[in-house]
Amino acid sequence: MTAPLLEVKELSKRFPAGYRRFRKVYDTALEPISFELYPNETLAFVGEAGSGRTTLARILAGAEDRSSGEILLEGKQLEMLDHKQRCSLIRMIFQDPTTSLNPRLRIRQLLEEPLKFNTNESKEERQKTVNRVLKKVGLLREHGDFYPHMISHGQRQRVAIARALMLSPKIIISDEALSGLDSSLRAQCVNLLLELQQNLGLSYILMSHDLGSVRHMSDRMIVLKRGKIVEQGRTMEVFANPQHDYTKRLIDEQMLTIERQV
Ligand SMILES: Nc1ncnc2c1ncn2[C@@H]1O[C@H](COP(=O)(O)OP(=O)(O)OP(=O)(O)O)[C@@H](O)[C@H]1O
Q1: Nearest CA among 123, 117, 110, 121 for reference residue 164
Q2: Complex ipTM, two decimals?
Q3: Phi, psi of 16 (to 5 degrees)
Q4: Which residue in 101, 133, 203, 240 has a CA-CA distance of 20 to 30 Å to 255?
Q5: Which helix (H) or strand (E) holds 174?
Q6: How far, in Å, is the centroid of ligand 1 from the Cα of 56?
Q7: Any alpha helices (H) in 166-219, and if so which ranges?
Q8: Exposed, middle or buried, 144 (CB in 10 Å: 0-12/13-18/19+)?
Q9: Nearest CA to ligand 1 atom 5
Q10: Which residues pair with 37 in a beta bridge?
């Protein structure tokens, strides 16, 4: 049987929420949760606002500490990996490329930035990698010379995807990366991500409230409610036969939104 790329065991997160009667109190963002991600798989986390998806994404990307639990990447403890090793295994794409891309850097510089870890690579080699990745995400070599404000929103999201790909990671976490896009751009980005998955053998973790994309892209889904897993399973099975009332409500609400758009 294939070994998991990522194993999360009893992971929890509490944020300090001040003092009550001189005792420190905490808000629980994630109850102890466990799951695995396998090569070439897409796992989606769905839930209402505040269900803990961003917190989980940030912990997995190493941007936030956890309160308890274990994270294993290819069998190695997350904290045993240095920054470069971690970035070449797992990278994140954020919701808004307008704020996540430094406006003072040209696209080429933004894409070269993650490559600074490869100190033995020459300038020419780095340029070649940048051009190759630009092509992979459907951008032209010339786009490399532009600043983020000179390209469209959809193209900026492609740059954000390209940036995540620079160190050839095995896992990409998308934290609502498709949410700010209109439906046609979202469809283009979904297709791009699926194409990249096929060509590069990537695994995805999708944090999303857009059940349409979740249904289209993910193999398995986990439903989070206030930091707790209430349901999980193969995406098609959960959609066809949701077990939990909360999941049923999320699916019904999504159907209503689609009907209103038609
Ligand atoms: N830095 C923080 N300090 C205190 N509480 C936080 C912090 N970050 C998140 N939380 C709390 O943790 C809970 C989960 O938030 P999180 O942002 O992970 O949810 P989410 O599912 O991503 O929702 P959204 O889609 O609205 O961002 C919320 O109750 C939130 O208020």
Answers
A1: 110
A2: 0.94
A3: -60, 135
A4: 203
A5: strand 171-175
A6: 9
A7: 183-200, 211-217
A8: buried
A9: 15
A10: 6
CB-based pocket (< 6 A), ligand 1 = 15, 27, 29, 47, 49-55
Question: Ligand 1, residues 26, 31, 51, 174: which to mutate, most atoms within 8 A of Cβ?
Answer: 51
Q: Residue 126: CB partners within 8 Å, gap ≥ 6? A: 112, 115, 118
β pairing state of 220-225 and 6-20? unpaired
Atom of ligand 1 nearest to the CA of 51: 21
Token output for 140: 């032209």
Ligand 1 centroid to residue 204 C-alpha, Å: 21
Minimum-distance ligand 1 atom for the alpha carbon of 224: 21
Domains of the chain: 6-261 (3.40.50.300)
Mean pLDDT of each 10-residue bin along the chain, 262 residues long: 94 89 86 97 95 95 93 94 89 82 94 82 89 92 94 90 92 88 84 91 93 93 97 97 96 74 54
Q: Which of 130, 163, 159, 83 is nearest to 121 (CA)?
A: 130
